[in-house]
Amino acid sequence: MDRLNLRRSFLALAVSMVAVMPAAQAQSAASKWPSQPVRFVVPFPAGSAPDVLIRFVGVKLSQKWGQAVVVDNKPGGSGVIGMNTLLTGPTDGTTFGFVQGSAISVAPSTIKGVSYDFNRDFVPVTLAAVAPFVLAVAGDSPYKTLGEFIAAAKARPQGIEVADNGRGTAPHLASALLGLNSGAQFLEVHYPGGAQAMQATLAGQTQMMVETYNVVAGNVQAGKMRILASMSDRVEPGLDQLPLARSTVPGAVAFGWFAVIAKKGVDPAILARLNKDMGEALLLPDVVAKSRELGTYPRPGTPEQLAKYIEDDRKTWQGVLDKLNIKPE
């Protein structure tokens, strides 16, 4: 080989080595991660179902990583406070969000002054779990099926009261979706929380309420309430005795859901490691069992799947908000 060709070979080798160095460095960084405690910002109060779930999962991750997992509760503002906390946090792989879907899909369209934009400011890591909404009536309600309830509401437009935990909240929008898709006109009654909505339904002040199963489970098991249908997209273990609302009203599918997200700028190799470890932890048998106790169902997946889930969810609820003429306030 002449001197010119030899020089070209050395140059080509040097270029190839430089090209692989960033990938190798990223892989090395991910393999050493985490080297310090990892914080999950949680926009829920301590003791709530998603808070209990991430704390339970956090124990598994801490054991796997050899680092503490810290749950930082930032409740309030329909999740906006937690989202803003994550937005102002670092991008060094020490801080992530375990957030509710409504803070991503609904809050920016219903709360004035929301400064974050999910696609601009955050990246998806994995869907964590879903909590299907159920349609619950008092135990002595004359309505035995969702079909009977819808028929009564159609016969008395605005004459059948349905309780939820606040205007523009996910249960309210789920109720509105049911009405829009069935052609029934409910009188939507908004309460400060699920407990108040449940008391109103038990007292006969409202004829049905929309909430996740864990909120009404105690009264259902005591025979004080009855569930007409689940708004899940599938039959869930433990809820398999419940008919699906979509069998009576096509498209009547609605969940509360929780996801792991990160502020944009975190090393992609670290995000890939978190996705893998979180997905494995969520599917551990005792985590699945604990999740079911809380009325939630693990559904981990890829970041791409979560991105598509968010896109579809935003379209669904924006369509409902537009029809209800709900604007940011």
Description:
By secondary structure, the chain is an alpha/beta fold. The chain folds into two domains: 38-131 and 255-324, D-Maltodextrin-Binding Protein, domain 2; 132-248, D-Maltodextrin-Binding Protein, domain 2, CATH 3.40.190.10. It is built from 14 helices and ten strands. Strands 1, 2, 3, 4, 5, 6, 7, 8, 9 and 10 form a ten-stranded mixed sheet that branches. It is elongated, with a radius of gyration of 24 Å. It starts with a helix and ends in a 5-residue tail after the last helix. The model has no long low-confidence stretch (mean pLDDT 92).
Furnish the topology, listing elements before pairings:
Blueprint: H1 3-32, E1 38-42, H2 49-65, E2 69-73, H3 80-87, E3 95-100, H4 101-105, H5 107-110, H6 118-121, E4 122-138, H7 146-155, E5 161-164, H8 170-182, E6 187-190, H9 194-202, E7 208-212, H10 213-221, E8 225-230, H11 245-248, E9 255-263, H12 268-282, H13 285-293, E10 297-298, H14 303-324
Parallel strand pairs: 1-2, 1-3, 5-6, 5-7
Antiparallel strand pairs: 3-9, 4-7, 4-8, 4-9, 4-10
Helix pairs in contact: 1-12, 2-12, 8-14
